[in-house]
Structures
1.
Amino acid sequence: MLVKEMMTKEIITVSPDMQVRKFADLLIDKNISGAPVVDDQGNLLGLALEKGVMFLDKNVHLPSFIHIAMGFFTFGVKKFEEEIKKVTASKVSEIMIKEYVSFSEDMSVEDAATIMLEKDVYYCPVLKGQKLIGIVTKRDIVRSIAKEA
């Protein structure tokens, strides 16, 4: 089976300016785990996922400091800064991921499943050239397996 035969074709997209709490409501209302973030021309900018919304309730861990003789070393400052940005996010653009795994419509479902497992991703856009034509989620993979049984 090919990705184009099992992907979700009715794509719910969001704008980068959408409020994160409104996006959370959309996830619940539509029973989805994420949405592509697109600009006014429909170009894919990134993915907004449940994980990004969860940062709003995350405890932020302070960076570690180690005192060695003449100075201090800090560990985790960059991660701390990134988490602060996500915890204080108000727009989807602030929680979206810009680096993602994408599939072509002619890829086999087996290859897509393998990549999703190896990369530990659960939400992947399907692109035809640069155009967004579908979404593949873990649920789509499981549904295709159930249909083959």
Note: Residues 20-30 form the longest helix (11 residues).
2.
Amino acid sequence: MGKEKTADGRLRQLLGPALGLEENDLDLLAGFLNYKKLNPGEALFKEGESGDFAAFILDGVMQVKKETEFPGKHFVLAILSRGAAVGEFPLTNGCTPLYRRASAEALKITELAILDRKEFDSLCIRHPQIALSLLRTFLKCACLRLQGANQRMAAVF
């Protein structure tokens, strides 16, 4: 069940406009979030790990990378900063456990708001409009990232 919290200024500034939520809805959402701080080089998750959460970057920069066929070599999929969602696929997929398709690590000190599967499921039941706003945002992020990947691939060929 959600914790009683109010949304801090960063959450309001970054997620409010993106999600189209009013202040009272942001306060409700804040009760379902946990917070984490990562140091540079620290992983939020690694490729192949089981994953059941998504995160919003409140401050800092993260790198999302995929292992290649060459040992120790990675392909950088994205550099994400304030306001971006990372690792959202497990919440949108609906099946657990889901294994991470890439790794995400902090490039600078990074502060995150974490929404895990249990809290997301509770949010869906208790506040479906807020959950729908989150899902729309996740879909928009995925579409923008796919467009970017398509443009990069087209530039190579």
Note: Helices lie at 9-19, 23-30, 89-93, 117-126, 128-156.
